[in-house]
Amino acid sequence: EGAGAAPAEERRRLEASACRLASHRVALRARKDAAAREGLLREAGSNGESGPRRRKGRAPGNPEEDEHDALRSLTEARNNMGSTLGHIQEVQKKLDETSETI
């Protein structure tokens, strides 16, 4: 009985640690995303821009380049959301695995 309990207890501790690690990864990613978003908003506010961000040296009013910038921004946002979703799914998987052992 004593020999069988030790590996089970160790496995529970490892699963709990893995779950905490996954949660910390999600929290760290959220902090990084929030800091990046805040930096972009601060930068846009200091430049007085109200539409798509303008690159330095580019004449305003070029709709094709504005559309390209908007597409790039949306693509980046989609990629960030996909990454966040992946982290959430990873945490959910760890939680499900932990719940099964309880």
UniProtKB/TrEMBL annotation:
The species this protein was found in: Spumella elongata
The protein, known as: Uncharacterized protein
Region (Disordered): 34-102
Segments of skewed composition (Basic and acidic residues): 90-102
Superkingdom, taxonomy of origin: Eukaryota
